[in-house]
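Hi support team,

I'm filing this because I wasn't sure whether my run with iron/sulfur cluster finished correctly. The job status page said complete, but I'd like someone to confirm that the output block is well-formed before I use it downstream. Pasting the exact inputs I used:
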Amino acid sequence: MANKGWNEFEIGAMLRSFEGVANDIALTKQEDRSYSQSNSFTASVADWRLIKPVFNKDYCIDCQFCWVYCPDVSIISRDQKMIGIDMDHCKGCGICVEVCPTNPKSLLMYTEQTDEESAIAAWPKKDDKEA
Ligand code: SF4
Ligand code: SF4
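And here is everything the job wrote out:
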């Protein structure tokens, strides 16, 4: 299908999210789904994000808060384990960092150009509780 602008569709037009028959989508892993070109999953937002979350698995307790709260479904979780971030769809809002409960946090925001290995090597230490 050729790309169309939003205002080129007829009123009431239906855009299919998947190619062909889409059974058991809820039980099909994201990477195995046949998304159609009209599904926003096929578009990347990576080139306009200015800041990004970096994940440090050393402190993660797999609470899944980041997965629940991410407004763009960009936290990748498998079998209730946080395994990373879908950087094609993350918009850099920082909500995952806000809700991460660990001390230090397991997710922190950095500029888009930050090297992840360097960020993890310089990760903040645990904050002492205030007396
Ligand atoms: S920064 Fe925002 S969009 Fe990106 S993974 Fe975190 S909550 Fe999701
Ligand atoms: S919110 Fe933090 S601790 Fe919980 S799964 Fe996400 S990264 Fe791990």
